[in-house]
TrEMBL record, chain A:
Residues 184-342 form the Glycosyl transferase family domain. This is D-inositol 3-phosphate glycosyltransferase. Residues 20-169 form the Glycosyltransferase subfamily 4-like N-terminal domain. Gene3D superfamilies: Glycogen Phosphorylase B. GO terms for molecular function: glycosyltransferase activity. Pfam families: Glyco_transf_4, Glycos_transf_1. It comes from Streptomyces fructofermentans. PANTHER family: GLYCOSYLTRANSFERASE. Keywords: Glycosyltransferase, Transferase. The keyword Transport does not apply.
TrEMBL record, chain B:
Residues 12-152 form the Glycosyltransferase 2-like domain. InterPro entries: Glycerophosphate_synth, Glyco_trans_2-like, Nucleotide-diphossugar_trans, TagF_C, TagF_N, Teichoic_Acid_Biosynth. GO terms for cellular component: plasma membrane. This is Glycosyltransferase 2-like domain-containing protein. It is found in: Cell membrane.
């Protein structure tokens, strides 16, 4: 492979510290690339609505707007050029072979106005194709990422779908594993663990329907639902109506994901849609086998069905219940799949993903 | 940059050119503007006589590091020699080929290089798009896109035979240069279709092939080019010979490499596509061409695996066979069907209960097998649903009157000798939206000639045909044949060379200035049409007319009319009309709207309730909704077409809605309307919010769905099983549930009671007579559930051999087959009288009542039929697949079925040996089944509904 070139790398997102997966991802990557000797700069378009603690970072950050930009229209257009000029100034100051990574398509609207001549521009979509397809981002990605050097989806399958829909510059890049816990779960506790916001997208309502089929078969097991969110009240009511209050525990939001995983022997995910779900990767890194709805390419990219976890057709709660039942009934299977998961998930370690990024930078220069 | 130019480029693109100086720079620019920078261009000129080579040299001079120009010493006449030279000159790690009239997509090299380096493939292939450069709206057709829906890597071409068989291009591919060198891959020289052989060789030799969904190559197609490119000149017999020779070489290559499966796939494709391509032109060619063509084709057909005939559509196989036998009389009509699918172009014959394409060749087993077209089901169609071949036999024009004569095929004698025949010619503009007026002319003579109907007509077109002009230049001709008052429509086939010719005057209404003559022409489908001919000297005037004010006015006029009509009849404006206008009218107190299965049938519980209301002589206004035709719906009700304005008005004003599935989802029910949802069957399969698809919906969509379901004021229940399944799955409130049983099943309960009371053999009703069932045969009903079939057709393949069934059981049973209303089934004539298709009967209940035994799989008729206490058979040949890959079931049928569950045809036959035995053996199980799933079905459901809701409408 090509010898490592130290580059200037810009991450441009909606915000530098907005609450969400993209922010965590950007700063994880920014730290990793900084560690490799690259000169990183994280740029946000606006201040966040709801912020997230990013701690001390070993690279500069810039936010273009002091407040929210005006609504789309003439007023915004005028201001955009001014902000884009600030981006241009940052880009011009970079050394040759610099790279601009646009993590969200909204931010691309500003990057597109900036002068990126001589730089490699990469546009990213941090969700499944199907999820974009169902909303306005589908058209916006096609418009604003049309001319970038590479548009990156999360999986080969998503990239292929983008290509078929006219994005001939599409390729893919998986997310890196957030952490590798030293100590795997002993898988002794008779608990099934779910971690995720209590929001429609995470399908906790379907998880409760599923659990209603499994719980009677395994009276000695419980379901621990970590997370908080707007739907909590509705879901708790559904839980009560289903008569599951004895076996379901509402754990609230946790800051200690490894700890939560260590308490479980099976991880369950019942989402309606996902991109490249970190929760599954974290569970696998903790050697906890997963049962999940196969709701996106990212899911079956992470979990190898039947080898290091079990998948069910999305929405088919009966099937997900059978998968859970299989894992809960068979300790040996849990151990085998859990250990396999911990090994297999290594293909997404930070070192591996950083190497792939550096290769991509090099490839796009050829 | 200097350092880079020393490195060999990643990719060499070999651009070949012959007398194409104008387009060459565009092709080369598409390479230089690639997003991948390390790309060189190798131009090879096939000794052009124009300035192509000079252009090439200028390009090389302009980009000395990236473009090189070479020239063959003499013209080779093909693509092979220049491409071979290109391979020799290339320096890149990878090689692509580009023709001077085409272009590379700008990311092509980058995407193919990435794929090649990631997978280590010798060969990467991507999507080619045919760009019709002359089309007004930028028509583009993807080249076999199903091969290129996702990235995939093959370790051998045998993993994907379709790739070799269909994508025979060499240009949408990226080859590792070392691979070409080591395998000594070169294009054949001195023969056309060199791509076919080269690509086949490359596929076979490659150790790994990667397919990418990316568009890589734009193949520019010129539709109106006078000098068509080589691959387009199909008419030339020499080309056909080249093609056959290339096929033979590819076959040899496959045989040498032991790739027999690929050869088989290729044979299938040959019958399905290659041969068809040539056969379609055949009717337009003269006898000399046909003979030569047949001689060449016959020799090749002999090498085709006969098993391949079973893998293609019957008409493809029939054509190949007739060609092989040089049976022109039968082949030419068959080609008509090849071009016009569903057209019945042969008289057909019935022998031994099967239908054959023609009476000839049937003494040969293979020919007989191929010519057996029973499965097309032509014998089951009434004449109005047949598209009959009507071949023009005479054409003569004199002073604007055209004398026409022709023969209409009469397959299987569908037009009986004594039939009353009428005929009419109809001229209509081809262009959609301007068909404001059609012109009709009488058919003057009609004669029944056995296997054809001969006709004559002499339309005076000069006076009788009045086109507008400009917007309606082409006029299609149809002949409507009336057979005892039933109309069937034909097109006039006129492909005999030289039959129709000449031009004569007509009188366009708008633009007589520019065109006032009309001439016959033959469409690509071989049908007679007439075209308004433009006078040469005013051609420019026409152009300006079409694009200028008159044309614009005419066009915008009809477009506007079309738009307006579209808007007025769109679903949205209808829904608005319903809510904003109709719903403001007062509710009519005694108006009841009935519907069954979305208007498809007059059946089920809505029918049973309706009939009970009539029986009791209630004073009310009845409206029935129908979806297709009003045939079979009651005379004593107002009939409205579903989604018509009268339908919406009736729904808006009704006091009661009664249906068994759902009224249109988007219609809000008024407060003053009561919705009786009878539902149409107890559930084995998961329903409603128990289905994955429903669960998956986001909350707002679920809420929307719930609003639709909450329109039900009453929901009929026939057992507590329904309460646990349907009512819960639809999240219905307890007070909605009406535990009275199904009105449709009253008849079944009564039939059972009557039987027990009377004892002795059961008396059959009029339906048995109507179906012609002899008294000494028992009646079995086969009623499977709906199955999703892939493909266009909704043909339902019976899971057992119906002829064998008739042979084994025909002297004891009559089998009634009722497919789901979305599937349809074809029975061969051989089983006539022994197996009957009763799918068209609106109501299943009388069929259930008639049947002495039921065969089903997972259909909800099981719950209803059980009420009769007669034997039931469960032919669950795909149970696991159905249960596990589908949405799941509420209970395990295998445990609870009140009759034998069989998996194979043989088991079915064994079980059917004795109805009596099964009847006794499962008597208890059936009673338990009824108790569990039909406890409220006690025979008085319709009356209970009437008592509860309509008693005050009884006349004093």
């Amino acid at each position: 492979m090509t010898a490592t070139v130290e580059r200037d790398v810009f991450f441009v997102s909606n915000s530098v510290d907005e609450l969400g997966g993209v922010t965590s991802w950007s700063h994880q990557m920014a730290r990793l690339l900084t560690g490799r000797g690259h000169r990183v700069h994280v740029v946000g378009i606006t201040p966040p609505g709801v912020s997230q603690e990013i701690g001390d970072v070993p690279y500069p950050t810039t936010t273009l707007y002091a407040g929210q930009p005006p609504r789309p229209g003439r007023a915004r257009d005028a201001g955009m050029r001014e902000q884009a000029a600030r981006l241009t100034a940052l880009f011009r100051a970079a050394r040759p072979r610099a790279v601009v990574i646009v993590t969200q398509v909204w931010a691309m609207e500003w990057v597109a106005l900036a002068d990126t001549r001589g730089l490699t521009v990469i546009g990213m979509s941090h969700e499944s194709f199907a999820y974009s397809r169902a909303c306005s981002r589908f058209q916006r990605v096609r418009r604003h990422y049309r001319d970038v050097d590479r548009m990156l989806a999360l999986t080969r399958e998503d990239a292929d779908l983008w290509i078929v829909h006219g994005m001939n510059n599409a390729s893919f890049m998986p997310n890196p594993l957030p952490f590798m816990p030293e100590v795997p779960s002993p898988r002794t506790g008779k608990s099934v663990v779910s971690i995720g916001r209590l929001h429609d997208q995470k399908g906790i309502d379907m998880l409760l329907d599923t659990w209603a089929e499994v719980a009677p078969l395994h009276p000695d097991w419980d379901l621990r639902i970590y997370g908080s969110g707007e739907d909590e009240e509705l879901l708790r009511k559904q839980c009560t109506d289903l008569g599951l209050d004895d076996s379901v525990h509402w754990m609230g939001r946790t800051g200690d994901v490894p700890g939560a995983l260590r308490g479980g022997s099976v991880f369950v995910q019942s989402s309606r849609g996902e991109g490249f779900p970190l929760a599954l990767m974290e569970a696998m890194a903790a050697a906890v086998p997963c049962a999940a709805f196969d709701c996106a390419p990212g899911v079956h990219e992470i979990v190898r069905d039947g080898e290091d976890g079990l998948l069910a057709a999305v929405g088919n709660t009966g099937e997900l219940a059978r998968r859970l039942d299989t894992l809960m009934s068979d300790k040996e299977l849990r151990d085998r799949m859990g250990e396999a998961a911990r090994v297999n998930i290594q293909r997404f370690t930070t070192a591996e993903i950083v190497r792939r990024w550096e290769d991509l930078f090099g490839f796009l220069e050829r | 940059m200097k350092e880079e130019s020393l490195r060999s480029p990643d990719v060499s693109v070999v651009v070949i050119v012959y007398n194409d100086e104008a387009r060459l720079p565009t092709a080369v620019r598409s390479v230089l503007e690639q997003t991948l920078r390390g790309v060189e261009v190798v131009i090879v000129d096939d000794h052009s006589t124009d300035g192509s080579y000079d252009v090439a040299r200028r390009l090389a001079a302009a980009w000395p590091d990236r473009v090189r120009a070479h020239r063959l010493d003499e013209n080779s006449g093909g693509c092979g020699a220049p491409r071979n030279r290109g391979i020799a000159e290339a320096r890149g790690t990878y090689v692509l080929f580009l023709d001077s009239d085409d272009v590379l997509q700008r990311d092509a090299c980058r995407n193919m290089l990435e794929a090649a380096e990631t997978t280590g493939a010798d060969l990467v292939s991507g999507l080619c798009v045919r760009v019709h450069v002359d089309s007004r709206n930028g028509k583009e057709v993807k080249w076999y896109p199903w091969l290129y829906t996702r990235t995939r890597t093959l370790d051998s071409i045998s993993e994907l035979p379709d790739l070799l068989v269909f994508d025979t291009l060499s240009t949408n591919k990226c080859y590792r240069r070392q691979f070409l060198v080591e395998q000594e891959l070169r294009f054949p020289v001195g023969i056309h279709y060199e791509d076919l052989l080269f690509s086949a060789q490359a596929y076979v030799a490659a150790r790994r092939i990667t397919l990418v969904p990316n568009r890589v190559y734009d193949w520019n197609v010129s539709d109106r080019a006078t000098e068509k490119s080589i691959s387009n000149r199909r008419a030339e017999i020499a080309n056909f010979r080249h093609r056959m020779e290339i096929h033979r070489r590819v076959d040899r290559l496959l045989a040498d490499n032991g790739l027999l499966d690929l050869k088989f796939h290729k044979d299938v494709k040959f019958l399905k596509h290659d041969l068809v391509l040539h056969l379609r032109d055949l009717p337009f060619r003269d006898a000399g061409y046909r003979e030569e063509f047949a001689a060449t084709a016959r020799a090749y057909l002999e090498s085709i695996d006969r098993a391949a005939y079973d893998e293609v559509d019957p008409i493809h196989a029939v054509c190949a066979l007739l060609l092989e036998r040089s049976d022109w009389d039968n082949l030419l009509p068959a080609v008509d069907t090849l071009t016009n699918r569903d057209k019945i172009s042969a008289p057909l014959v019935e022998r031994d209960g099967r239908v054959y394409w023609c009476a000839e060749h049937l003494d040969d087993d293979f020919a007989r097998h191929v010519l057996d077209v029973t499965e097309l089901g032509h014998h089951t169609k009434p004449v109005e649903r047949m598209f009959l071949r009507n071949v023009l036999t005479g054409y003569a024009e004199r002073s604007g009157t055209v004398r026409l004569a022709g023969r209409i095929t009469n397959p299987l004698g569908v037009v009986p000798p004594g039939a009353r025949l009428t005929g009419e010619l109809e001229f209509g503009a081809r262009r959609k939206g301007v068909r404001f007026q059609t012109f009709r002319f009488p058919v003057t003579a009609l004669r029944h000639e056995g296997d054809a109907i001969a006709w004559e007509a002499s339309p005076d077109l000069s006076h009788g045909l009045r086109p507008l002009g400009v917007v309606d230049a082409v006029w299609d001709v149809r002949l409507h044949l009336g057979v005892d008052g039933v109309r069937t429509t034909t097109r006039l086939t006129a492909c005999e060379p030289g039959l129709v010719a000449g031009r004569f005057p007509v009188r366009p209404r708008l633009t007589r200035l520019v065109a006032d003559r009309i001439a016959p022409e033959v469409s690509s489908r071989g049908h007679l049409a007439f075209r308004i001919v433009t006078r040469e000297r005013v051609e420019t005037l026409v152009a300006s007319g079409v694009r200028g004010t008159p044309g614009r006015l005419a066009k915008s006029g009809y477009r506007g009319a079309k738009r307006l009509r579209g808007r007025l009849t769109s679903g949205d404006s209808k829904i608005r009309l319903y809510h904003e206008v109709f719903s403001r009218l007062p509710v009519k107190r005694r108006l009841v709207v009935f519907e069954s299965h979305l208007g498809r049938q007059y059946s089920d519980s809505p029918k049973a309730i309706y009939e009970e209301m009539r029986r009791q002589g209630l004073d009310f206004e009845a409206v029935w909704s129908y979806a297709g035709s009003p045939e079979g719906f009651p005379d004593d009700a107002v009939l409205v077409r579903r989604w018509s304005l009268p339908y919406l008005r009736a729904l808006a004003r009704a006091a009661f809605w009664i249906d068994n599935q759902s009224y249109p989802l988007k219609l809000t029910k008024r407060r003053g309307t009561t919705y009786l949802q009878t539902w149409h069957g107890s559930a084995l399969k998961r329903m409603g919010f128990d289905e994955p698809e429903w669960k998956l919906r986001p909350r707002p969509a679920q809420a929307e769905q719930q609003r639709v379901l909450d329109r039900f004021d009453r929901f009929l229940i026939r057992s507590e099983h329904d309460v646990r399944t349907l009512a819960r799955a639809f999240r219905l409130k307890e007070k909605t549930l009406l535990r009275v049983g199904y009105p449709r099943n009253d008849a079944l309960v009564r039939a059972r009671r009557e039987e027990l009371r009377a004892g002795g053999p059961r008396r059959r009703g009029p339906l048995a007579r109507e179906l012609g069932i002899p008294d000494d045969r028992a009646v079995l009903l086969y009623a499977p559930t709906f199955r999703h079939q892939g493909g266009r057709q909704r043909r339902f393949e019976l899971p057992f051999d119906v002829e064998r069934f008739a042979d084994v059981f025909g002297d004891r049973y009559v089998l009634l087959v009722r497919s789901h209303y979305l599937n349809h089934v074809v029975l061969p004539p051989s089983v006539r009288g022994r197996v009957l298709d009763v799918s068209a009967h609106h109501d299943v209940t009388p069929l259930l009542e008639l049947a002495d035994g039921l065969i089903t799989d997972y259909s909800s008729v099981m719950f209803d039929y059980a009420l009769l206490g007669r034997p039931m058979f469960f032919f669950a040949y795909d149970y696991e697949e159905y249960v596990h890959e589908g949405r799941g079931t509420y209970f395990d049928l295998l445990e609870r079925a009140p009759g034998p569950v069989v998996r194979t045809e043989r088991e079915l036959h064994t079980a059917l040996e004795s109805l009596d035995e099964q009847s006794v053996k499962y008597a208890e199980a059936r009673d338990g089944f009824v108790a569990e799933f039909g406890e409220y079905d006690t025979g008085g459901a319709a009356r209970a509904v009437v008592d509860q809701f309509f008693s005050e409408w009884r006349r004093a």
